[in-house]
Specification:
Length: 452
């Protein structure tokens, strides 16, 4: 059987509405094209499964394997992944969080660019498509390679488009290509494989060029960013390490990081813009809170966060309702194992249905309604935050979570501090594009400058 994303997502809603057909419950198996698959619809089960070493693999998916040469972080299995993950986390600590002010100032620079671009387009319908992609990449890029892109640079615009093509899965033909590899091989154009691969090769090729550029001002042993730290590792790595020159891991690893970042943080900001524009009463409540803490400064800073519980609730609600990584990335068993009394064979694909967890009516009242208040108690303290897992959980959870959370806070708070947002007659479509992530379709809103 070939289920679409929407059909799998729908199971949780069917479960709760006393339907006596198609009730799959918290765990069920399904054949997705060539992939024997187990779907987990329940948070406790996902947390338990994703802790187990047997569930840590990624299924072989032709498009990703071909573009990244079976290397990198996101789409491969085995010990190399953990060597690369640990290194990224160590670098993020060193370059982003030991000197948080520096990293924050890079994000603030990008926000200033965004605010002035919005300022040039106030009081009229503003077309939003990949609007936040380059600014959110730039903040990250300064930590990764110590540079930024001009927003008008055609090279980075093309890269964003390629990343989007690579991760896209829109339409039946694309899903067919994703799960039925023979269909993709026989009809590469019809299933979208050609477009996806072209996008993937462009992204990894761009990073390869970035590596070959080297870094003339680098002082060995004194890295200033992720790339320079990589170069130090590269020069001393043992032959079995994924950092050894013969393994050539850099393009795939940094390409995966770029891909994971480009289609997530920016799209979550888009969803915040859409939901707050469509819900003016929540937007007003947020702005009242922002006004009360900002004082006579021009921009909100990360230090303001503890004083902004409603803002935190808004971010949690946007992450819950948009469920950008609806299924996270697919997991895959690397040996036979027992789970919850079931025998799960080696090479089984595991889908943690994060969307289901975030929309389960047994946990969330009216789950399709945008209501940040569900994350606050009467004393305005945050609650229920442990009931969502937008960055997944366990051994392969998202390594960009802290960076993403800082960017989400700073971008969303500052945009809504400076501008009121309203919808035009063409209301945004709440049905997302389908792919590895679920960004919104292009939409339009009107920005109106606030008097502050
Ligand atoms: C709102 C923003 C983001 C969301 C919602 C998000 C969500 C996720 C999810 C659900 C996964 C799958 C985890 C799993 O397989 O169990 C993931 C993986 C990953 N994310 Fe994120 N992510 C975001 C931003 C970022 C950023 C900014 C970066 C880079 C700095 C990043 C880097 C990665 C990487 C490299 C992986 C693959 C990890 C692995 O395969 O071991 N993510 N993310």
């Amino acid at each position: 059987m070939l289920l679409t994303n929407h059909e799998i997502k729908a199971q949780v809603r069917l479960k709760s509405r006393n339907f006596n057909v198609l009730v799959y419950g918290p765990i069920f198996s399904v054949q997705l094209g060539h992939l024997r698959t187990v779907v987990l619809n329940d948070l406790k089960l996902i947390k338990e499964a994703y802790k187990m070493p047997e569930f840590m693999g990624r299924p072989p998916q032709a498009v990703f394997e071909r573009a990244s040469d079976k290397k990198g972080i996101g789409f491969v299995s085995g010990p190399d992944v953990f060597e690369q993950r640990n290194f990224f986390v160590k670098c993020a600590r060193q370059f982003c969080y030991n000197d948080r002010g520096h990293f924050e100032s890079k994000i603030q620079d990008e926000i200033s660019h965004v605010l002035s671009k919005i300022g040039e387009n106030v009081n009229q319908p503003c077309k939003m498509e990949h609007f936040f992609s380059i600014p959110t990449i730039n903040a990250l890029w300064s930590f990764l390679v110590g540079e930024r892109f001009e927003h008008s640079d055609p090279k980075i615009k093309h890269l964003v488009k390629c990343a989007s093509d690579y991760l896209s899965m829109d339409g039946i033909a694309a899903k067919l290509g994703y799960f039925v590899t023979v269909a993709a091989k026989l009809f590469p154009d019809f299933t979208g494989l050609t477009k996806q691969l072209k996008g993937g090769f462009s992204v990894y090729g761009f990073i390869d060029q970035e590596w070959k550029k080297g870094c003339s001002s680098r002082v060995p042993g004194q890295p200033r960013n992720y790339k320079e730290a990589w170069m130090d590792k590269f020069e001393t790595a043992s032959t079995n390490s994924s950092f050894h020159p013969s393994r050539n891991y850099f393009p795939a690893t940094l390409g995966d990081i770029l891909l994971a970042a480009v289609e997530t943080t920016a799209a979550t900001i888009d969803w915040a813009v859409i939901y707050l524009a469509m819900n003016p009463e929540h937007q007003k409540k947020l702005q009242d809170e922002l006004d009360s803490v900002v004082g006579n400064r021009d921009l909100l800073a990360l230090d303001d966060r503890p004083q902004l519980p409603y803002m935190e609730a808004v971010i949690h609600e946007v992450l819950r309702i948009s469920s950008l990584g609806a299924f996270g990335l697919l997991h895959y068993t690397t040996e036979d194992c027992q789970f919850q009394g079931f025998s799960i064979p080696d090479k089984t694909c595991i889908i943690g249905n994060l969307y289901a967890v975030h929309h389960d009516p047994e946990i969330w009242e009216s789950p399709q309604v945008f209501r940040p208040e569900r994350f606050l108690d009467e004393s305005n303290a945050l609650i229920n935050t442990e009931k969502i897992v937008p960055f997944s959980t366990g051994k392969r959870y998202c390594i960009g979570e802290s960076i993403a959370r800082d960017e989400l806070f700073l971008f969303i708070a500052n945009i809504f501090y400076k501008f009121n947002l309203i919808c035009t007659e063409n209301k945004p479509d709440l049905n997302p594009c389908q792919g590895v992530t679920s960004p919104p379709k292009p939409y339009e809103v009107i920005f109106i400058r606030r008097q502050n």
